[in-house]
Automatic annotation (TrEMBL):
Coiled coil: none annotated. This is DUF1508 domain-containing protein. It comes from the Bacteria. Pfam families: DUF1508. Residues 12-57 form the DUF1508 domain. InterPro entries: DUF1508 (IPR010879), UPF0339_domain (IPR051141), YegP-like_sf (IPR036913).
Amino acid sequence: MAGRFVISEDGQGGFRFALVANNGQTLAVGEGYPTKVACVNGIETVRRNAVDAVIEDPSGQEL
């Protein structure tokens, strides 16, 4: 099973999402959104753009 997106209220009347791995580790957290619909749109944007995303590393350090 793939990871999952978890939507939560942020305590200020807005919403945030977290991308959570199968082992429960939070991999990424989205910005605050004013509505749940906007939050879901943020999730969809991540889904569309992350599929072919490249890694950029301006540090110049090798792995």
